[in-house]
Specification:
two-stranded antiparallel ribbon; 28% helix; alpha+beta; 68 residues
Length: 68
């Protein structure tokens, strides 16, 4: 793990959403896709997008193992 911090949900950037596995395309950018998926999962809880909850952000560095 390279970093841990807290931030508001709506502070997520397109770059953050891409790091989470979302991809921008001709119809929606990565942040909007992230927003829609978040709403699908958490819409009926206190963690819905409109409440802008505090979230933990964990950052990792990918390490490649050489082929032996």
């Amino acid at each position: 793990m390279t970093n841990v911090r807290v931030e508001r949900l709506q502070d997520v950037t397109g770059t953050n959403a891409i790091a989470e596995g979302f991809k921008s395309n001709a119809y929606l950018d990565a942040k909007i896709q992230f927003h829609h998926v978040w709403e699908d999962i958490y819409n009926k809880t206190d963690f819905r997008w409109s409440n802008n909850p505090w979230t933990w952000v964990y950052e990792f560095e990918q390490i490649y193992k050489p082929n032996d």
